[in-house]
Amino acid sequence: MKIGMNMLLWTGHATQEHVPVFEALKRTGFDGVEVPVFDISDPSHYRWLSGILDDIGLERTVVAIIPDEASSPISADPACRRAAADHLKRVIDCSQALGATVLAGPWFQPLGVFSGERPSEAELERCAEIHREIVPLANAAGLACALEPLNRFEAHLLNTCEQVIAYADRLDTEGFGVLYDTFHANIEEKDSIAALVDLHASGWLAHVHIAENDRGTPGQGHAPIRETIAALHRLGYDGWLTIEAFGRGVPELAAATRVWRDFFTSPEEVCSKGFEFISSCLKECP
After folding, report:
1. By the number of CB atoms within 10 A of the CB, which of 11, 119, 240, 258 ranks highest?
2. Rounded average pLDDT over 213-223
3. pLDDT tens-digit series, residues 20-48
4. pTM of the model
5. 139 and 181 in contact (C-beta within 8 Å)?
6. pLDDT at residue 249 above 80?
7. Helix (H) or strand (E) holding 274
8. CA terminus-to-terminus distance, the chain
9. Name one Pfam family in it (predicted).
10. DSSP string, 113-177
C-alpha cells in the first residue's frame, strides 16, 4: 500500500508557494500527494505542477467536488446537470495534465445542500446519467474513479457503503469505483470494518482516505484506523492510504465541513505523526 497526503490541509489550489510542502512530504516518506482540482480554469497550471512533482518524486491522485447547485448532477434542471458534466470534463482535463491516476472525491452533489428528504429515485438516476457519461472519459484520461460517500451532515445522496454499492451496481460502468473514508464510515456505519469488507467484496473499492474521527492527526482519536489497515491487508488491497485532515486553511471548505476549531498544533504534526502511525500499522500486518 502507498501512503499519500491530501493537500487540503494547506490549500484548495496548490501553487509555487507549496513546493516546500511537497519537498517536506517527500522527505517524510510519502509516496504521493492528493491535489485538489477545484480551480479548473487553466489545465496548463496542472501541467506545470506535474513537472514540479515529477522532479520531487511524488505520485499524485486528485480530489474534486461539485462546486455549487448550478452545477449539480442531481438537479431537476437539465441545464444544471449539463453544467455538472461540463465541470467534471474540465476536472478530467486538469487531472490528466497533472499526471494523476485517481479521481477521488464526492463529485455527486454540492456539499451542504439538502433536499430535506431521503435521496429520491429521480436524484439517483439523474446523477447516474451524468456519471455514465463522465467515467469513460476519466478512464480514457488514465484516471481510476473513486466516488466518496459523505456523512449525512454534509450530503444526503450517498452516506453509507451499502448505498454506494447499490449506486455502483446501478451505474454498472467499467472503471467506476468507490472511496472508503474512515471518518465518514466512523459516523455512518454500524460496523465500519464489516462495511469495508462488504465494499471490497462488491469489487468497487478503489481508494482509501485515512481520516481521524475529528479530522485531526491519524492515530490520536478513536476512528478504527489500525483495524481498517489490518483489514485492508487481509483483503489484499494494494492501493492508496491517503491522509485527509482539515484545518482552517481553506475557509470555504472549513465552513462546509464544520471545522470550527484547531484539531492539531500544526500541519507538520499531522504529516509526521500520521505517516509514522500508518507505517507502524503496516509493519504490524503479518
Report:
1. 240
2. 96
3. 999 999 999 999 999 999 999 999 999 99
4. 0.96
5. no
6. no
7. helix 267-284
8. 14
9. AP_endonuc_2
10. ---SSPPPHHHHHHHHHHHHHHHHHHHHTT-EEEE----TTT-SS--SHHHHHHHHHHH--TT--
Per the listing, cell 522532479 goes with 55
Name 285's Cβ contacts closer than 8 Å, sequence gap at least 6: 229, 230, 233
DSSP run (H or E) holding 281: helix 267-284
Q: Is 221 helix (H, G, I), strand (E, B) or coil?
A: coil
Q: Which helix (H) or strand (E) holds 242?
A: strand 240-243
The number of angstroms, rounded, from the C-alpha of 105 to the middle of its chain's C-alpha atoms is 4
Give the phi and the psi of residue 285 in degrees, each rounded to 5: -70, 130
Q: From CA 36, how far away is CA 275, in angstroms rounded?
A: 20
Q: What 3-state class would DSSP assign to 181?
A: strand
Q: What is the pLDDT of residue 50?
A: 98
Count Cβ neighbours within 10 Å for each residue of 215-237 and write b for 16 or more, e otherwise: bbbbbbbebbbeebbbbbbeeeb
Q: Residue written as cell 453544467?
A: 83
The answer to whether 116 and 73 have CB atoms below 8 angstroms apart is no
Angstrom distance (rounded) from CA 10 to CA 75: 31
- Rounded Cα distance between 182 and 219, Å, is 12
pLDDT greater than 90 at residue 258: no
Residue 13: name the closest of 41, 54, 55 by CA. 41
